[in-house]
Each structure stands twice: as C-alpha cells, then as structure tokens.
Amino acid sequence: xxxxxxxxxxxxxxxxxxxxxxxxxxxxxxxxxxxxxxxxxxxxxxxxxxxxxxxxxxxxxxxxxxxxxxxxxxxxxxxxxxxxxxxxxxxxxxxxxxxxxxxxxxxxxxxxxxxxxxxxxxxxxxxxxxxxxxxxxxxxxxxxxxxxxxxxxxxxxxxxxxxxxxxxxxxxxxxxxxxxxxxxxxxxxxxxxxxxxxxxxxxxxxxxxxxxxxxxxxxxxxxxxxxxxxxxxxxxxxxxxxxxxxxxxxxxxxxxxxxxxxxxxxxxxxxxxxxxxxxxxxxxxxxxxxxxxxxxxxxxxxxxxxxxxxxxxxxxxxxxxxxxxxxxxxxxxxxxxxxxxxxxxxxxxxxxxxxxxxxxxxxxxxxxxxxxxxxxxxxxxxxxxxxxxxxxxxxxxxxxxxxxxxxxxx
Length: 410
Ligand SMILES: C[S@@+](CC[C@H](N)C(=O)[O-])C[C@H]1O[C@@H](n2cnc3c(N)ncnc32)[C@H](O)[C@@H]1O
Fold this sequence. Notes:
The protein is an alpha/beta fold and 410 residues long. It has 2 domains: 15-315, 3-Layer(aba) Sandwich (Rossmann fold); 329-408, CATH 2.40.50.140. 31% of the residues lie in helices and 22% in strands. It has 9 helices and 17 strands. The chain has helices at residues 15-25, 38-53, 66-95, 114-125, 143-158, 181-184, 211-224, 240-255, 291-300; strands spanning 102-108, 133-140, 166-172, 192-198, 226-236, 260-263, 283-286, 306-315, 329-331, 336-338, 341-347, 354-358, 377-380, 387-388, 391-392, 395-397, 404-408. Strands 1, 2, 3, 4, 5, 6, 7 and 8 form an 8-stranded mixed β-sheet that branches. Strands 9, 10, 11, 12, 13, 16 and 17 form a 7-stranded mixed β-sheet that branches. β14 (387-388) and β15 (391-392) form a beta hairpin. The radius of gyration is 22 Å and the shape is globular. Residues 1-6 have low confidence and may be disordered. The structure holds S-adenosylmethionine. The site of S-adenosylmethionine has 22 residues, from α3 and α4.
C-alpha cells in the first residue's frame, strides 16, 4: 500500500467535497501550500488518542469544542467519508436502481456531516440515474456538530447544482437515553432506505459490561424503521476491541433473526474471529490520499495511505454480495510471505482456517494466489491437508494442479 495510486477510478475525494470542507473549516484543504495550523495538529492528535485509547473522554460531547470540530472536519471527515462511498458502491447491487425513487436516509451519530457529504457526492456521480428526492435525517448529541452538519450540507449544495430536491433534518438526542421521538413515532413503519451508523457504536455505553446487549437493542429499534429492502451500513474503527464488539453485535442480530448479513461475511454462522480471544476482522482498502491528509500525517506521525475499518452491511431481505456457496472464501489477512511459502487466513462457513502455497508448488493455474489480498473473495479448485501423526494438518495447501481465482477483489 506504500505507493500512491494514480488510477482515476480509485476511491478518493472530489474537488467539490474538498472545496466544501475548506470553506466550512476555514482551512485550505484543496492545495495546501501553507503549514497545517498547530491547533489543528493538536486537535487531530488529541482526538486520535481519544478514539484509539479512550484518553480524555469526558461526559460532554467532544465535538462541542471548536478546536475538535475543526480537526475532525478537516482530517477525520475526509478519511471517513471515502469509507462510506466504498461501502455504498459495494451495497449498490442490493440497493438497486435509484432512478424514479425518493431516498430516505438516517445517519445515526452523524457528527459534522461525514455521511451526508459522502451521500451527496455519491449521488452526484450517478448523474441522471439518481433518486427523484432525498430526505436526510441526522441524529447526534452535539448541537454544535449538527450546526456544522447544516453548513456542510448547504456548502456542498452551493458548490454546484443538485439533481434532486433535498431536505436535511437534524435531531439532537443522546442515543444512550433512547431514540428521539421522531424516530420512535415511525417504529413499525419501515421508513428508511439506508441507515448509516459510522464510528458511533464504540462510543455508546463504552464502559458497561452489557454494552453489546444495549447496542443490539438500539440496532433492533433502527431495524424496525428500515424499509423491507433497506440497507444498514455499520462502520467501526479498525481496532481489535471495537471490531470484536461489532462481530458480537452481528452475531446477536443474526441469531435473533433481526437482520441478514449482506457483506462482508459469506455465511450467517457465528463469527469465527470470536473463537480465539486475539482474533478480529478488519478491512484495508486503497485510496487516493489527498495532499492535505498526507501533510497532517507527516506532521503527527500517522499513515493513512490505506483506509482501515471494520464494517458490516445488514439487510432484512437475505440479499448477499455474492451468492452463498461452500466454494467461496473471504481472505481476512494479508498475504504473508514466509520462508518457502505464502499464506493467508480466510473465512467461510467452516471457520477461519489458514491456507498456503509452497513456492515450489507455484504453477500457471494457481499464480493468481500471489494477488490475493485482505477482503478478496476467492475460489480454489483443490486444497490438500497432509496428515500429521494421523491428524489432518492445520494449514490447507494449494497444490500446483489447483486453479485459483479472485471472484471479487476488495
Ligand atoms: C467519531 S464521531 C463519528 C461521526 C461520523 N459518523 C463519522 O464517522 O465521521 C462519533 C459521533 O457520535 C456522536 N455521539 C457519541 N455519543 C453519542 C450519544 N450518546 N448520542 C448521540 N450521539 C453521540 C458524537 O457526537 C460524534 O458526532
């Protein structure tokens, strides 16, 4: 992931998004030639410590602080909104054609407008194939963040024509105390075509032993308001604890029959990453890192050259990203180069086994193995498990005679 990607179809930020963020933050994100203000760097460092290690988290919404809002808007929003767009592209086959439909979206813990900007810009790219109208509702407990959200919404619209009538509704509410009455009133009446829950769950009930149960309850209430053919995108930080909590939440919702999993999982069995205490599943996707982010990264010592996150896309209608099949597997690690072989961990309905190919077994039919990457959906015609002392070996080996495919790259 070290080399900058210059492929124009690669995920990245549009000039209109960068222009909007520059205007609302008062910073120059489009062509940063000036040093990043120290207050912004300090805000990014402090927010990061808070997100990664829970440092300095008080009871007061942190986005009520102006310095945090500016840091969040200029650094975390650009990074996070591309993640939403990547997953919108992934969910698009299930969402179906938007032309002639009106789209109702709920953004839960939407902060200063990450999801909204992602959606507005994604719809813009659909050109004439977008919906006839867009209704966007955002819930957050920070009034100040919601005010910025409104400015971001207006700012994006001011930068170019909208293809459909659009309405934004902001709702201030502490989600730990329950859903706002406006959403409660709609319960049982499936309303939303899309619900985005990004980087919120790990901030809810964070020190409580029954946090997963409480989050499940919230998700069930949200699912109650999801259209029968609607989609929920849940994104969490690529941290072991947050990701494992998300796996647990997914398991509970599937067990209870409250939702079906569209992606990333290729099965509905309990998540095999939860079997061992140290395992977890996350994504690493390439993107075109804007110069501004590069500049902040250099100054604070971060590397956002790839987008890392954990996610699950849920629906109620059983649709899946790829048809369920025992022949398909999802790569859930990097391709690990070892002495005399390469290996990956993959996930399928049998669990999370390790699979490898000895260098001496490389052949024309299995050469694609070298291109396997985290998140790819793959197929192999043949796996050999050598018996060791009467028991099958733990590592499945791809022989030279096997045919290897990438059915869907990440
Ligand atoms: C890390 S930010 C995520 C913002 C945006 N979704 C994104 O991914 O960039 C978490 C958001 O959740 C909101 N939040 C945290 N706890 C909340 C609560 N109890 N009720 C409502 N909103 C909450 C915060 O104010 C903040 O806007």
